[in-house]
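A common beginner's mistake is to predict each chain separately and then try to dock the pieces by hand. The better habit, illustrated here, is to supply every component at once so that their relative placement is modeled jointly.
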Amino acid sequence: MPTDATSSQEAPVAPTVSTERLRASRNRSTGLAVFPQVPESSPSAHLFEPIVLSARGTLYSYTISHPNPKSGKPPFALGYVDFPEGARVFGRLQLPEGQHPQIGTAFEARGDGPDYRFVPAEGEAA
Amino acid sequence: MTQNIYIRGAAMTPFSRHLDRSLQDLAQEAVLGAFNDAGLALGTAQAFYCANVYGGMILGQVLLRDLGVTGPAVYNVENACASGATAVHLACQALRLGKYDTVVVWGIEKLTDLGGGAIPLQRNDYKTELYAGQGMSLPAVYAMRGTRYLYERDLSAEILGRIAVKNRGHGARNPLALQQRPVTLEEVMTSRPVTDPLTLLQCCPSQVDGAAALVLSTKKPTDRRTSVRVLGSAVQSGRLEQGCDDILDAEITARTARLAYEEAGIGPEDVNVVELHDAFTIAELIYYEALGLAPRGEGQRLLLDGETALGGRVPVNPSGGLLAKGHPLGATGVAQMVEVAWQIEGRAAGRQIENARVGLTQCTGGGIAGVDHAASSVHLLGV
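With all components supplied together, the output reads:
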């Protein structure tokens, strides 16, 4: 994404490399990871190195949010997924009808750009 | 502290839906109330500290204008939910330096002006924008803590509901609280789900307005039975969220509390009353441990044994807390100190704690910034 060198707004980096892998940054001094990736145009960028997260992470916690009934919108699941690279990613959980999230189960990212979702990893039935 | 800082005056408006009152009305009521309480003229204030989040720029000057007292410095302070306490902290710094001997701090917010629903997110950078688009909200942040808490401790969700029962029971005894009706555990657990495991009655009300003010001075009052002092004052910011850390750790709150305790030269065992940041029920349980009131892993015992209810060893949120009072953001931190000052002075009618000598106030806010909460402030007040 082009950036204006005089702009004070960092250009956001698309979170995904492919449809399944999320991009993050590793803090060079602590070795710990942050998500989303720190933009390359940021004055802080030199403190981090870009990394690509593993395909699978583990559900650390979750909630089911219930929009006000007046809105007519259905409940949706949100969660924190922890990746082996030491990154925790927040995002929507997309589960089959009737399936409830369980802490400790494996999830994979799907989707491009800012609309990534987490789905249960194959072979990891709740 | 080398200089004693006295709370000369403490006042607050009711926390309510003040649909027919303006920000000016509420702020001036609190400020004039605090000076009246102090027995001091408004003109004795050498600086003004205004804590607010959503009211717009130069709010302090606008609110004071008609009182005809501006000219001295007005400091407008924003630190999310910790705005009010941050303003008190900054005032204490200036008083300790000897720059002023008397100042007034007030916090003010009119959430009913915002149109309803959950408190709006700040979407002011790439991370908050991304997560907001995913559905991040402050209740969701706390709810995920709740889920993890119940999972790790193998507890049922009712432990969370019991915080709401306690605090709304306290609020029923506080004429200044928005919600003055006690609730049963069943009512709490069956109220509308907001974001699991949090139900509606486990979330602080979002449609509420209010103001609170303190007159702080290094001149000791001569006309009071008790002279409440600021024994410790700390503000800290949250550390970058990196790695996969423990979301039950409340690291920023624990760190801020340690600083306040060190400054005051006392420990959690010396605290007789607490006003803490119960924006959601799970928050109070986690903060019991972060504030050192209970060892890690044992906060729920304090609640179940009745130690944090009125009549218990260390009542928490005798005012009703944010759950019963509501959380007009800028006002909350100051209102917590008004309550603790009144408790120590024997002026908390209907909810008076016996022999309170030391109180702690804590607010921690700004939960969606890519840090473990953006700001925390802890104060110790006492005689």
